[in-house]
Amino acid sequence: MSATLLDTWYMTRRQLVVFARQPAYAVITLIQPVIWLFLFGSLFRKVVELGGFGTTSYLDYLVPGVVVMSALSSNMWAGMGTLEEIQRGTLNRFLTTPVSRAALMNGNVVNNGLVTALQSVVIVLLGLLGGADYPGGIGGVTVLVVASVLLGTVFGALSNALGMLVRERESIIGINTFLLLPLTFLSSAFMAPSQTPSWMRHIADFNPLDWAMVAGRSAMSAHPDWGDVLGRGGALLGLAVAAVWLSIRTFRSYQRSV
């Protein structure tokens, strides 16, 4: 187990070095969240007058949604990196080394998780600068960040598995484009559940994106519902473990094919 952890850290550090050498990439990935946060936050600021948002500031409601959306959109493309390493032959060269096979997949997932946590904290700070209020304090923000990392792990691991299976950029782009908007709008990202049609609320109950939002928003509120936090958080954790297991199994299948 210790060898696997060391190998995972080595593979993670390898990707973190690449990330650190491209600081412009970190800035670019924050452009869209900033647009969602301040453009949509200003455009729909009066929507809270409809009721059901649990706050008098739409920005307070929007920040957790943007954090979770950012985690989803950035991690859905993890498979592109895996596919690039397959096409360059980098992954096959690692197969000739004694490095743990699980670490080859998990290094990517851990790297994305750390980057997601950093992005989430930056978005929370930007919201704070914009006037958002977080009654749940540091504890609530921590729950939101952890929920976003778990969600990112789910979709990052699934994206890796997808890259192993399809091995085509066009397929990954098509599937991600198809899933991103429905997952976002069939959740409580922008609108309070009480203001949405009942069929959308029922679908949101099975949407991992909404699980992360509910857990984060509840923890950041003045009176957290810890049943919601633990229930949604536990579901995300279970799904993340299953997704990582699937990506490792898919990688072993790929290994047998080369």
From TrEMBL:
Give its localization: Cell membrane; Membrane
Give start and end of each ABC transmembrane type-2 domain. 24-254
Topology versus the membrane = Multi-pass membrane protein
Which protein, by its recorded name, is this?
Answer: Transport permease protein
Sorted UniProt keywords: Antibiotic resistance, Cell membrane, Membrane, Transmembrane, Transmembrane helix, Transport
- One Pfam entry for this protein is ABC2_membrane
Q: Where are the transmembrane segments?
A: 23-41, 61-83, 109-132, 138-159, 171-192, 229-248
**What family is this protein classified in?**
Belongs to the ABC-2 integral membrane protein family.
Coarse class of the primary localization is membrane
Q: Which species does this protein come from? A: Streptomyces glomeratus
InterPro entries named in the record: ABC2_TM, ABC2_TM_bact-type, ABC_2_transport, Nod_factor_ABC_transporter
